[in-house]
Design brief:
The structure holds two protein chains of two kinds. Helix content of chain A is 59%, strand content 1%. Chain A is mostly helical. In chain A, a hairpin with a 2-residue loop joins strand 1 and strand 2. The longest helix of chain A has 37 residues. Chain B has five helices and eleven strands. In chain B, the strands form two sheets. Chain B has a six-stranded mixed beta sheet with strand order 8-5-1-2-3-11. A five-stranded mixed beta sheet of chain B has the order 4-10-9-6-7. The model of chain B has no long low-confidence stretch (mean pLDDT 92). Classes of the chains: A mainly alpha, B alpha+beta.
Chain lengths: 612, 278
């Protein structure tokens, strides 16, 4: 038992709250909440700087560590995208840029942004920080393993970054790492580069599994009294479902990374058929390149939702809080998250319509893919219906949410093009695909991340970010990103293939020169605009306005901690007891326009609140 | 207020961009107009949903701006509305899926009268082979590939002898006659793609993949590799020349068969040996 929280006693005290709770009483206690079934968790409080800030077991610190490391990789990814756009918009301007470099930048940009930036940020960053706070726990259930998870991720990032400095440079195989080219000469970084990539991915999966077990078990086992599953904030639902997906999907990535490492190092032939290279038949035979694609996308498609579901959850909460209105159709939202998560395991081969797999698969995967559009559309409807008849604060957080809706719907619609098998045929492997997935899983989740940063910064740092700077940051990013990716779809219609170092002078492609220049300039501006946030954070930490407790007047538990920012253990002496869902905004008859989750029914007796 | 206006301008701008864009499809030169039509249909339905959702959002932003004294509506659920929206979406999705699947069914069923064209890809180039008078391509093996046998045709396969070897990265096709493209690769993934034909498929080493189309416009087209295949990917171009039947037959008669090619190499060898002896 921890020396600071005397738990057994507090349980007694809590059950004594029950005023006249005897069964069969004429006045059953409306505030009754079932007592906890297990004792409270032991917490190890760090005693030194290293224990408090480096090898720390506090999920909040681990969350911030994940966040900062992921942002570092994100900045690397951003710089790589600038270099790519430099080549595409103004070929030859950067003298050092060879085709090898270009493909290495493309590959590293993709892998960093999808895995090391977005996944780590949403689950490692927001997951760690918010899960214990939102479900009313003192920490993750396995704090030590949680710490290991971050440091494993850190090593994975270090290995990945090291690949920039090995002979031959990082791999240039494209982030999908399709064999056979990935491990053959003719692809840049096919020696050390690819090996380090595969090792780094394996480390990432191992580290992530440790974190993921924590997120799942904390949510399932460590919720506070009264926090039923259907009273959890959608943020927690999104992160929970994404974690379950990750636990099932990442093993496919791990095994394919191991198999490919064996193909590379020991000349096994999991993915390698008979190959003729420079007039020589290589020592491979009988393997299947398409097998790798199946494994990769069995991971890769759920991966899209591993990024998207936390974003769905977070944006639901942000919209609800800042529209001062309950999220519309909460139960539908929960089932949509779970349904999308389940379906996401049955759609992977829509990335492979023209891969040469048996073409009859196309019928099945097109159908499952378009089915997934239905719960996704329901979520969109519910977001805008939450705005409807709301009382909407148009602040920076809400702007990011609105930006998310526009970009997500745009990217979702183009997904219907690409999912619909025969429509995919002319568009696949063109810039339409690039535009689609950047809009839907690049820009849209990024909008949510930004909104979440502005929303929760007062909790994490105890200070309010500057609104004016925030709005500039939003408008430049939103308008800039939209003008990068919206026109880019039309390059795809022309037929411009992706992953082209240079377009040359195909007659129908020369017309795209002007557009490519425009897109590149917009990309430089949007990238630079992200440093407004960096500046805003530094400025706020130094001189910013101190945040009051719960500045947004939200209901969920993270705003009701004993101190701001919350200390280790989160809730002081007593864990909160939950009586309602987190969306009781603007309840008729209530004094304020919000009723915190901890408010007992007897305190709001004259309100017309619905039972949750 | 200005936020709503900017969002509105973005939506209007998107629609105008779509109407006036100078960047759009290349003129179609094959039978796959159905793909274009499905795209257009998806544009109408999807674009409509996009505009409607965004306009509704913008309306809410204008109409329900924060006022201290006002309260939002409190209505956690509306089962009826949710049901209507679910079914309407399902219907819309079915309407898009149906034509998509119908065209896919055509795409995977090759017409019987299609002429086979064997496309062989390597890092980084293309080569072609046509069946000879017997209408059948000879079987092949990567290990047989040599200067005198660029496709690795099995020497004891009788169907292989008369195969027509096109020693060029440009292939000629007969106008209005379906072609079945057989794709093979000797090293990594490639994809034989002509934007004007709309169709594509990866070439995968170790197996033979296929797709078909019917060219319907005489002219010259550029072939692009559409599956990343290493550092020369962007430069891996080829060509197609679609010709009328008469022109095509002239071209076809000028091509060498596998047998002739082998004989030529043998002669070269003999000549080479003679030279060496001298």
């Amino acid at each position: 038992m921890s020396d600071e929280y005397d738990n057994n006693k507090s349980y007694q005290a809590q059950s004594s709250e029950v005023i006249d709770g005897s069964a069969g009483s004429v006045n059953p206690d409306i505030d009754y909440v079932r007592p906890a079934e297990v004792g409270e968790q032991d917490l190890y409080h760090g005693h030194s700087f290293i224990e408090k800030w480096v090898f720390c077991q506090d999920a909040k610190v681990i969350g911030v560590q994940y966040f900062l490391t992921a942002v570092f990789t994100g900045i690397v990814g951003l710089i790589l995208s600038w270099l790519m756009r430099l080549q595409l918009g103004f070929p030859g301007l950067a003298g050092f840029m060879t085709a090898e470099h270009y493909y290495q930048f493309v590959t590293m940009h993709g892998m960093i942004m999808v895995v090391y930036f977005l996944t780590a940020l949403f689950l490692g960053g927001f997951g760690n920080y918010l899960i214990p706070l939102m479900v009313g726990a003192r920490d993750m259930v396995f704090p030590y393993v949680n710490m290991l998870s971050f440091w494993m991720f850190f090593v994975a990032v270090a290995v990945l970054m090291a690949s920039f400095f090995v002979p031959g440079g990082p791999t240039g195989a494209g982030w999908t790492l399709y064999p056979p080219q990935t491990i053959l000469e003719g692809t840049p970084g096919s020696g050390m580069g690819i090996l380090l990539m595969l090792i780094s991915l394996s480390l990432f999966v191992i580290g992530f599994t440790m974190g993921g077990l924590n997120y799942m078990i904390t949510i399932l086992q460590a919720r506070t009294r009264g926090m039923t599953l259907m009273r959890m904030p959608l943020t927690v639902w999104g992160i929970f479902t994404a974690t379950v997906l990750a636990m099932l999907a990442f093993p496919a990535l791990l095994v394919s990374a191991i198999m490919m490492t064996l193909d590379k190092v020991l000349q096994t032939s999991f993915f390698m058929p008979t190959i003729l290279k420079a007039g020589e038949v290589l020592e491979y035979g009988g393997g299947s390149p398409i097998l790798f694609q199946h494994l990769f996308w069995f991971f890769g498609h759920p991966e899209v939702y591993i990024v998207a579901l936390p974003a769905f959850g977070i944006v639901s909460d942000l919209i609800s809080v800042h529209a001062r209105k309950n999220i519309f159709g909460y139960r539908m939202m929960v089932w949509a998250i779970v349904g999308i998560g389940g379906l996401s395991f049955f759609v992977w081969a829509h990335h492979m319509y023209v891969s040469g797999m048996n073409p009859w698969f196309g019928f099945f995967f097109a159908t499952t893919t378009l089915i997934i559009a239905v719960p996704t559309a329901m979520k969109v409807y519910n977001w805008i219906l939450t705005l409807w008849r709301g009382n909407i604060r148009i602040n920076t957080v809400m702007l990011w949410c609105l930006g998310f809706i526009v970009t997500f719907v745009n990217g979702g619609i183009t997904g219907i093009f690409l999912g619909n098998v025969s429509v995919d045929v002319p568009l696949s492997d063109t810039y339409f695909v690039i535009a689609h997935f950047h809009m839907v899983m690049g820009i849209a989740p990024l909008m949510v991340i930004m909104g979440a940063v502005y929303h929760w910064f007062p909790l994490v740092a105890g200070k309010m970010l500057h609104e004016g700077l925030g709005k500039w940051h939003f408008w430049i990013t939103f308008l800039g990103a939209y003008s990068i990716y919206f026109p880019m779809h039309y390059l795809g219609f022309i037929g411009v293939p992706r992953r082209y170092f240079e377009m040359y002078d195909s007659p129908y492609m020369t017309s795209a020169v002007g557009m490519n220049e425009f897109i590149s300039i917009a990309a430089f501006i949007v990238g630079a605009a992200q440093f407004i946030l960096v500046f805003n954070i530094i400025k706020t930490l130094k001189t910013g306005k101190k945040a009051e407790q719960n500045p947004w007047k939200a209901n969920s538990l993270e705003w009701y901690t004993s101190t701001v920012p919350p200390e280790h253990g989160n809730f002081g002496d007593r864990l909160p007891v939950v009586h309602r869902w987190p969306y009781d905004f603007s309840v008729p008859g209530a004094k304020d326009d919000f009723i915190p989750q901890t408010t007992a029914p007897s305190e709001v007796i004259h309100t017309e609140v619905e039972k949750t | 207020m200005h936020a709503g206006i900017i969002f509105l301008l973005v939506i209007i701008g998107s629609v105008l961009f779509h109407i006036f864009t100078p960047w759009y499809w290349t003129d179609i030169a094959s039978n796959w107009k159905g793909m274009d039509d499905t795209i257009t249909l998806t544009f109408w339905v999807g674009g409509g949903v996009f505009v409607a959702v965004c306009l509704f959002m913008i309306y809410c932003v204008f109409k329900y701006q924060h006022k201290e004294e006002r309260r939002a509506e409190y209505k956690p659920e509306d089962k009826k509305l949710e049901k209507i929206l679910t079914w309407a979406t399902t219907l819309g999705v079915c309407a898009l899926l149906a034509p998509g699947l119908i065209i896919w069914n055509q795409y995977v069923n090759v017409p019987k009268n299609a002429i086979e064209v064997d496309v062989m890809a390597w890092q980084w180039g293309w080569q072609y082979r046509l069946p000879g008078a017997d209408g059948k391509l000879g079987t092949t093996q990567v290990r047989n590939i040599a200067d005198n046998n660029p496709f690795g045709i099995n020497p004891d396969d009788p169907f292989g002898k008369d195969d027509i070897m096109v020693e060029s990265d440009v292939i000629n096709l007969e106008n209005n006659r379906p072609v079945k493209i057989l794709l093979r690769s000797v090293d990594v993934l490639h994809n034989w793609y002509v934007p004007q034909f709309r169709a594509k498929m990866d070439a995968v080493p170790g197996t033979v993949t296929f797709y078909w189309f019917e060219p319907n416009k005489v002219g010259e087209y550029e072939v692009l590799c559409a599956e990343y295949c290493g550092v020369g990917h962007y430069a891996m171009r080829g060509g197609v020349e679609v010709q009328d039947k008469a022109d095509y037959e002239v071209w076809l008669s000028e091509q060498e068969t596998f047998e002739q090619l082998s004989a030529r190499y043998e002669k070269l060898n003999v000549d080479g040996n003679k030279l060496a002896k001298k």
